[in-house]
Amino acid sequence: MPDNAGTSIPDIVIGRLPLYLRALRRLRQEDKQVTSSHELGQRLDISSAQIRKDLSHFGGFGKQGTGYQIDFLIEKLQVVLKINQEWMVVVIGAGNLGSAISHYRGFQDRGFRIAHLFDVNPAVIGQRIGDFVVRPISAMSETIRAENIKIAMLAVPAEHAQSVADQLVEAGVEAILNYAPININVPAKVQIQYIDPVTHLQRMTYYLDG
Amino acid sequence: MPDNAGTSIPDIVIGRLPLYLRALRRLRQEDKQVTSSHELGQRLDISSAQIRKDLSHFGGFGKQGTGYQIDFLIEKLQVVLKINQEWMVVVIGAGNLGSAISHYRGFQDRGFRIAHLFDVNPAVIGQRIGDFVVRPISAMSETIRAENIKIAMLAVPAEHAQSVADQLVEAGVEAILNYAPININVPAKVQIQYIDPVTHLQRMTYYLDG
After folding, report:
1. CATH fold of B11-80, please?
2. How close is the nearest chain B Cα to the Cα of A64, in Å?
3. Which residue of A69, A93, A187, B158 is most buried, as measured by CB atoms within 10 A?
4. What is the 3-state secondary structure (H, E, C) of chain A?
């Protein structure tokens, strides 16, 4: 759970903004210039009233009856989410998952750039994976401090996730996206989000006929 | 959003059950036999009252003052989530991401088994990836029907995600885990969940000092 102190906007609202942004970028790709909360809502399966209410926290960004200027709304949401700058990110773990993350082309034009890929395995260190040469995890903390990196993606085995996260926090990382299938504990000031496909699958099977 | 009609239990509660299950399995790995809502809550950063309330939807599973028998609670949650059986899953897209998914060892003992890996690219079809030989997407629908497969993981480029999802639904798939960074529309009876690391990163940068 993100530490929500100091802001009056519910975290669940913040969590929807990246979805709005993604849909808006898609509309722009389709050469559209104006959209509505109705159109956005249909694409996202979110009610238009919810979308208007969410955006009203930040001033609304649209005029009654004329819809939203897509470029304008994209720009505003990028400012709200602080991705009108590029954030450096480190990836820890150069196995299949870390390798797939490192090859993924979808970070850069959405606010993030992978700066380094670290692993503990001597057989992998020094190998080229995509655009990166895998660096030793022993150099991780110093690199993060020296380059003032605030964000890490954690793709290590579950049994190492907590200790690596502790090192990341100690080195100054303030946001961790954890792919290891285990909950990790971080100080309240550190943001943490999880990606575990199995939890999503299990959430869906509840609704299926067994 | 999962279609919640026909059940009185909020989807957000269902969404937390896989997290409880994951934490319980971890406790069992640590050779613990009994836990408490307090201990679970600390590990998950969820209040113990919330955990007790969530579990009370299903009967509670614990006695006042004695905590939860871990094995018993695991078994009960698996029944609730319908993963006391093994679900066959297909993976569509054999690029870096589909390849990483296919190599991932964490599905099988949590209720899921990848049955097939499909791709559209002739250069990839027939190649071995992990335990799989990549099959042509032209065989996808027939295979899904013949084997009565209900779950798919979608790891294709964004521009193909909707059309592949339409084919999956037409073939009988009832739950899709979509890794493509785009919202897709499915009938209300079909479950859909998303994995898009960038939306998680953007949700966190909101809280960072820009």
Report:
1. Arc Repressor Mutant, subunit A (1.10.10)
2. 26
3. A93
4. CCCCCCCCCCHHHHHHHHHHHHHHHHHHHCCCCEECHHHHHHHHCCCHHHHHHHHHCCCCCCECCCEEEHHHHHHHHHHHCCCCCCEEEEEECCCHHHHHHHHCCCCHHHCEEEEEEEECCCCCCCCEECCEECEEHHHHHHHHHHHCCCEEEECCCHHHHHHHHHHHHHCCCCEEEECCCCCCCCCCCCEEEECCHHHHHHHHHCCCCC
